[in-house]
Inverse folding.
């Protein structure tokens, strides 16, 4: 199994910027694939393709053996991000949240705590997803770190940043403090040219 070691830094590390220092505890991609396949086999699904990957795990498209439908299945490398993501989905489900300020939110279909798998609904753009890096309590960072983080996000999102801030504020109302923010997990209407959209 793999445990992430983050380098000491004076900025907020997010999914896109986080440097990985692997040690013996980190779950390999093959282990993630094996767990996702075990989950799929137990739920009348089969894995069709890998949809994405990152520091928290891998996402696969799973197809139903019975109904022909498709769902994303996310295998998490570590328990803490899995539990954060699961709790975020539970919070949103309890509040019947399917959209946040016009952004579609995936719905939790099922989860397996032993395999650290989350199965969710497919969403189309615009969407907000990937809560494994979210904090469920307000994070405590110095003002200069927040300022650097905001400058980076402002650059990433450009003129869309004010809309992203509104989405983040709405999530905070539910106790979900999303720090791992990028154009891949808060996505607007049109994908960039040449990008095939699969969510």
């Amino acid at each position: 199994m793999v445990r992430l070691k983050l380098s000491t830094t004076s900025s907020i590390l997010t999914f896109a910027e986080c440097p990985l220092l692997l040690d013996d505890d980190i779950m390999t991609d093959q282990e993630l694939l094996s767990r996702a396949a075990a989950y799929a086999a137990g739920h009348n699904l089969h894995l069709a393709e890998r949809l994405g990957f990152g520091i928290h795990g891998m996402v696969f498209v799973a197809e139903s053996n019975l109904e022909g439908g498709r769902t994303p299945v996310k295998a998490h490398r570590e328990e803490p991000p899995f539990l954060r993501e699961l709790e975020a989905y539970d919070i949103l489900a309890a509040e019947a949240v399917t959209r946040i300020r016009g952004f579609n939110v995936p719905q939790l279909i099922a989860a397996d705590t032993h395999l650290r798998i989350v199965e969710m609904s497919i969403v189309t753009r615009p969407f907000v997803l990937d809560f494994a890096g979210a904090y469920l309590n307000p994070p405590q960072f110095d003002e200069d770190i927040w300022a650097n983080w905001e400058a980076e996000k402002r650059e990433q999102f450009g003129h869309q940043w004010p809309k992203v801030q509104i989405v983040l504020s709405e999530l905070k109302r539910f106790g979900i403090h999303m720090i791992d923010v990028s154009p891949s997990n808060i996505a607007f209407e049109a994908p960039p040219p040449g990008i095939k959209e699969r969510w």
